[in-house]
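Section: protein folds

Sequence with per-residue tokens
===
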Amino acid sequence: MRPLLLIDVDGPLNPYAAKPHRRPEGYETHRWSTPRWEAAERRRLTEWGLPNKPVKPLRVWLNPTHGPALADLPYDLVWATTWEEEANTFVAPVLGLPDLPFIPWPSPRRAPVDGVFWKTPEIVEWARGRAFAWVDDEITEADRAWVRNHHDGPALLHRVDPRCGLADGDFTALGVWASELGRLRAVPSRLYAGGRTCDSPGVNMVLGTRGA
């Protein structure tokens, strides 16, 4: 069985933290009023006493080459994003990806505990011990510790800098990890921690073990 690649949209695919008036090279600009965005912004404006103010579309930067790069990796792709099913409606067509399964998040979301990102326990529960790599801009050491202590299979938690999004080094790291998976399965509790910043061209991965 192939490992899962759990994909966040905002950060890895949409480098929202890049300079607002300087679109990253290779990216295209999209402005969408998705139902989720519209509802969230309408609630916010109502709370501010501006219920009749028009909702501005969400600006999204996407790189069309990321779709083929993801599809070429030896993973089963899954959306792990608050876009949920809307990632298939809006993001997937731009990237040339088919409709992908997505993780449905609970409402209300779990309250964070000890600095653990609210997605992390949901992902571990959803994966049910299956090997996975997860790309997200909000991964921290607290999340790696949680996965190390609660997930029964190999996992790569790979943080992506939201100022620059996924780059060649990230795709290389994901491919290398998948190629090593047979060896990792011999020690099921092993965890890889990966990540890269915009200022660092390389990707560092560190091996940890459950209970370490």
Helices lie at 35-47, 66-71, 86-95, 119-127, 141-150, 168-179, 181-185. The longest strand covers residues 155-160. Residues 35-47 form the longest helix (13 residues).
